[in-house]
Amino acid sequence: MIYVTKANGEKEKFDPRKIKKSVLEAGASVELAREAIKKVEQEKYNNMSTDKILDVTLNSLKKDRGVVARYDLKRAIMQLGPTGFPFERYFALVLKEHGYEVEVGNVLSGENITHEIDIVARRSQYHMIECKYHNNMGIKTRVKVPLYIYARFLDVKKHGFDAPWVATNTKCTADVINYAQGVGMRITTWNYPEEYSLKKLISTKKLYPITVLRCVGRNAKERLFECDIYLIKSLFETDISTLIKKTGFNEKYLHRILNEARHILDGEKKTTVNR
Questions:
Q1: Residue range 205-256, pLDDT digits in tens
Q2: Half-sphere exposure of 188 toward its Cβ, with a 13 Å CA cutoff?
Q3: Sheet holding 48-49, edge to edge
Q4: Domains of the chain in sequence order
Q5: 11-33: per-residue pLDDT in tens?
């Protein structure tokens, strides 16, 4: 029996069905998904890391750049760092696209001390949101995080907040979920809760970060962040001359970025039909 090693060091049985499911979710055709599974099956070995499996899978999908970018979404979210601020801005934009009124970086006076709140969001309820960004897939958010966030919530509750909310780009422990359920705290992690996870919030509205773009290197990424551009869809909301002025990129490079971004968004429409 073949086992794989996850990013946190845990081991689990190798299951090609998981790869097939995630590849299809990324918009691949059934045929391309079969090719990816075949390639991984050929190269698998006991205790192979999930990161290595990801690399092999991505290499087998390279004939469709859009699928590659969407399949590598989780790693793209990791590249929103190294600080947590880009993730806060990105998550706020994701919520805004889902109908929330959002503000980032509010400083509020509490009953006892002053607090800087990552995001305040209002839709049916008024939430105080704290973002916990990790730049390693193997790191889980542990219970001390919701403990101190709930304490902060109690101190600023006078501002009309209905509930606290913790958002993280990785996973959380079972204690976190149990504690949150007990105190009425909302949690968003990469894959929890199933219908409203970070992954679902992104994919259902195609809210891909600019870090999914293969042609955007570290320096270009930082420049786009400085221009308050976090979503690839935002690239199409500004005319090319304004983008050139804001980013300092030359027109040829910007067209290359836009072409890849268009392939990711439009390619999904073409490839998700046949499943």
A1: 999 999 999 899 999 999 999 999 999 999 999 889 999 999 999 999 999 9
A2: 23
A3: 11-13, 3-5, 48-49
A4: 3-63 (no CATH), 85-203 (3.40.1350.10), 209-271 (1.10.150)
A5: 999 999 999 988 998 888 999 99
